[in-house]
Amino acid sequence: MKPKILAIIPARGGSKGVPRKNIHELAGKPLIAWTIEEAKKSKYIDRLILSSEDDEIIQVAKQYGCEVPFKRPIELAQDDTLGIDPVLHAIEQCPGYDYVVVLQPTSPLRTVEDIDGCIEKLISSGVDFCVSVTEPEKSPYWMYTLENNQMAPLLPQETLIARRQDLPKCYSLNGAIYVARINSFIEEKSFITTNTMAYVMSQERSFDIDTIVDFKICEYLIEEK
């Protein structure tokens, strides 16, 4: 039997780096529209909803065909609200699903192939959690901590690796896609567990928008495509 999949786009109104970031224009569309449009192409997602406390974001999401079954309580839209709390709240409001997919609106270059690929990986492998990752631009093997201005390698090595091609492959969360079996997610209250699988995405599709510079880079990449 085909599992029932709920997708949630969490988008609150407050943002520090870029005011009104989630509806700030990117290449002719509000930022959030890029995520809504790709999610709607998914062959696995049964229901796509928005979680927001902000009337303007709600209106924009509806314009682009995203369902808004509830308004997020203001206490779940604060600067110090844990990212997991609005997801748990949304699951509670929309019962009856087997899996949850969380799609941050700040990853506009993620494609439906990425979304469906991540869902497929989780279901075919039989694990309960799968998240998207990418290779970081700078390897942690070339990072340092400073103690009294003295450099100490973040990851201690017997001999410093001098050539990039000799570095161990490393991956970091890119924030684009989080998928979980709902029962396990409610139990763990996290997507990152000892049972989490990685779905690898390219750096070009892994941009996580936080600043105006990020908007400019993404705009350039979209126009180049």
Could you please describe the fold and organization of this structure?
This protein has 225 residues and is α/β, with parallel strands linked by helices. It is 28% helix and 21% strand. It is built from 6 helices and 10 strands. The protein has helices at 31-40, 55-63, 84-93, 112-125, 182-188, 212-224; strands spanning 5-10, 25-26, 29-30, 47-51, 99-102, 129-134, 144-147, 150-153, 172-181, 196-200. The strands form 3 sheets. The chain has a 6-stranded mixed sheet with strand order 4-1-5-9-6-10, with helices on both faces. A two-stranded antiparallel sheet has the order 2-3. The chain has a two-stranded antiparallel sheet with strand order 7-8. Strand 2 (25-26) and strand 3 (29-30) form a beta hairpin. It is globular, with a radius of gyration of 19 Å. The model has no long low-confidence stretch (mean pLDDT 93).
Low-confidence stretches: none
Instruction: Write the element-wise H/E pattern from the N-terminal end onward.
Output: EEEHEHHEHEEEEHEH
Rg result? 19 Å
The major pleated sheet works out as: 6 strands, mixed
Tell me roughly what share of residues is in helical segments. Answer: 25-40%
Strand content: 15-25%
What coarse outline follows from CA principal-axis ratios?
A: globular
Number of helical stretches of at least 4 residues: 6
Mean pLDDT: 93
Distance between the termini: 38 Å
Structural class: alpha/beta
As laid out across the biggest beta sheet, the strand order is 4-1-5-9-6-10
Instruction: Give me the count of strands.
Output: 10
Structural features:
single chain, 225 residues, alpha/beta, six-stranded mixed sheet, two-stranded antiparallel ribbon, 6 helices, 10 strands, 28% helix, globular
